Amino acid sequence: FLFHANQAGLDMAIVNAGALPIYDDIDTEIRRLCEDAVLNRNDNATEAMLELAEKEKTRIQVLKDGGIDTKAVKAAAEWRSKPVKERLMHALLKGIDEFVVADTEEARLDTASFPAPLQIIEGPLMEGMNIIGDLFGAG
Fold first, then answer.
1. What's the per-residue H, E or C state across the chain?
2. What is the reported pTM?
């Protein structure tokens, strides 16, 4: 909703920025269903949201019963398989600190990509911070 309100001219709002996902990171099905409901684009938007809620309720119960969240496992495996520069930027953007020491050390040892440790800071870390600044500036 805030994305569309911002596009329509909203220039001030009080929000918990830490709880807001990046628009493009929202699952496409969830985003479509939410936009259909909020923007009144589909007469069946409420029913579709209720169906999704039931699916999500079932998925959460499976997790509580000891099941595996294959969606989360797949997403984690996907970003962890990227080159170290991309992993550092992704972790910075998402606030993930679990792998920061290992990834930073891997980058430090990669003297072909980062001949000096300062280049790690000036490279992927500054690029990530620039993206964060752009996102912050865009609302």
1. CHHHHHHCCCCCCCCCHHHCCCHHHCCHHHHHHHHHHHCCCCCCHHHHHHHHHHHHHHHHHHHHCCCCCHHHHHHHHHHHCCCHHHHHHHHHHHCCCCCHHHHHHHHHHCCCCCCCHHHHHHHHHHHHHHHHHHHHHHC
2. 0.55
